[in-house]
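Technical note accompanying the year-one report. For the benefit of new consortium partners, we illustrate the data format agreed upon in the data management plan: each record pairs a sequence with a structure-token string. No post-processing was applied to the example shown here.
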Amino acid sequence: MNFFNRLGRLVRQKRSAKPADLALFIARWGAFVAQKTVLDYCAVKLGLNWEQARREPAFAAALRDCRWRVYFATQGDVAALVEARLRPHARGAEGRLADRVAAMAEEALAATEPPEHLRGEAQAAAAGYRSTLARLQMAREHGATTLPLQAGPILLETLPIHPDLRRGEAVSILGALRMHVVSADQELERRFDLAALASALLAAEGER
């Protein structure tokens, strides 16, 4: 076996197939995609006024609510991305796979502490993860670049920058969101043995 084959084998061996690692991945990337998208846009848009704006109570409250509301959606979007990547390795057990992945997203959201006035929205979002994955399973298979993102409309609706000040920017805003989802997909591929992970998830589900 030559060096490159040995190296490739070593890299594959390091990939995880542990459901616990996947649960942590979903939780972290759901939060990362939301935070990175919202904060980067606002920081660039406001420029030198960014830090001052963050100290203003009205803007700070609007920014906080935007981040949470986008996060409720991105947690589901990351779960949908994971399900789509694992689905080819779970033929005949797609429904069980979706339930396991959705449960991880639900648990990740349940572990957070959104503001009191947003807790109902958080519960509604979590309750919708399973139905969203079930609906996506009925459609054609999507990759990271074409997966419908539930966070997109919420992002545009809740950004704490007046719509008049971001005319013509929707494509770039949504493009940034998509870019971070693609980054999550690349990290998923790098960190996990997807076939073995799908088998482990279904085995764990069957033991419940």
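Partners are asked to follow this layout when depositing records. Residues 99 and 130 are 6 Å apart (CA to CA).
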